[in-house]
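dude i think i finally got it to work??
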Amino acid sequence: MHNKYKRSRGFFLLHYFRKYGFLLLIISILLSNLVTIYRDKQQRNNEITSFALDHSDFFANKHPITSINHKMKASVLRIIDGDTFEANLHGRVEMVRMLLIDTPETVHPHIRPQPYGKEASKYTYQLLRGKIVELEQDQQKRDLNGRLLMYVYLKGKSVQKALLAKGLARVAVYPPNQKYEMAYKEVESHARKQLLGIWSIQNHELKAGSHP
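look at this
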């Protein structure tokens, strides 16, 4: 009886293996591959983490300006004149020059204060002093003086357009930074027709010149 039971059990196991053995083999291979893939993924993640830690200085805002269209927030610290100010950007104090406009000079070392220069500086001071602004880069990051060249926005509205609309600035094009040239010229044209600010002065373009 015992031998018969053993033979019956052996026959059952043999039958089970023949029926499901191939399937079990496939499952075993798949599980082995999944384990290998998981280990490889973990190793890659560890390598990436190690790289980030080894290069943490690079990622820690030492090079904050990398994208042309990306807008960055900055805190305005000090107004220099109508189109230039100091700002705290990622913990660094930067001199920011507004792109595509030129306001009358007030602090230029070689040029006397120009008409509406004080008004432009006062307007920029009242508008931006102590405020959080957004900065947008064009093709060129800095000028020859090391200043950041930026389009400036306050609460989503263009500061350059605000100055142009009041006749406190003129469009000043310095290629390759020309992204909003046509839009700014349209605002400038409207101020000129209404003889606002600098456009109330006869032959302003001949007298003022353009000083970046």
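Residues 47-68, 206-212 have pLDDT under 50 and may be disordered.
im so relieved honestly
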